Amino acid sequence: MNYIEPVFDVFYLVAVISMGIIMIAAGKNNLIVKLFGIMAVVLGGGDSFHLVPRIYALLTTGLEANAAALGIGKLITSVTMTLFYLILYRIWEIRFDIKKATGTRVIIGILVIARIVLNFMPQNMWTQFNAPVNWGIYRNIPFALLGILIVYLILKKAIENDDSTFKKIGVAVIISFACYIPVVLWASSFSIIGILMIPKTIAYLWVVFIGFKEIRQTKSTYQP
Predict the structure, then answer these.
(1) What predicted TM-score, i.e. pTM, was given to this entire model?
(2) Which residues contact 19 (CB under 8 A, 6 or more apart)?
């Protein structure tokens, strides 16, 4: 496992960041494509702050000996993952030509700010190997609410417009949260649950691949 996980992590980072860069380059005249590329780079770039130290730890002195680097990496990943969903929400607005969404934007903004503020609270003890589980739950409450809201918005419009691409994205986000929440709640007590991070990561890779395969060929209703 010490070798399988690093190989998987390297594949994931290279694939996500590469697809993101390609989409940014291809999105000069299509804002959706460009945003999808930025979203992918934010995802992969943020995850690299956690996964690169994790790869190093698994191949050398172990996770506990590298707790500080891993913790800081998790903090950065938590913030960039929040930004990932903020960008995905903006893509949703453009995709379905949403013009009047002030209330939804306010709710999204509150959840994003709450998530980021909670991430930076010292009680998280990011650099400790056995960080408090309760703060892991607290900081993920607004994140879970953000995910639920975005899944609802995506699937509602995708079903109304028979948009198969965004139906897939909605399903992928559901899978990611279905795998992530048990890890937050129980991984500290049952380490085997941590294996759910693999399908969670694959779900995010799927979101990016969907965009890479289909969104970049779809003209946006937005005129930049």
Answers:
(1) 0.91
(2) 37, 40, 208, 209, 211, 212
Contacts of 220 (CB under 8 A, 6+ apart): 30, 31, 32, 33, 94, 95
Domain ranges of the chain: 4-217
Determine whether domain 4-217 maps to CATH 1.10.4030.10: no
Q: For residue range 108-138, what is the model confidence (pLDDT) as tens digits? A: 999 999 999 999 999 999 999 888 989 999 9
Strands (DSSP E) found in the chain:
none
Distance (Å, rounded) from C-alpha 57 to C-alpha 64? 8
Q: What angle do CA 186, 188, 191 make, to 5 degrees?
A: 85
Percent of the chain predicted with pLDDT > 90: 75
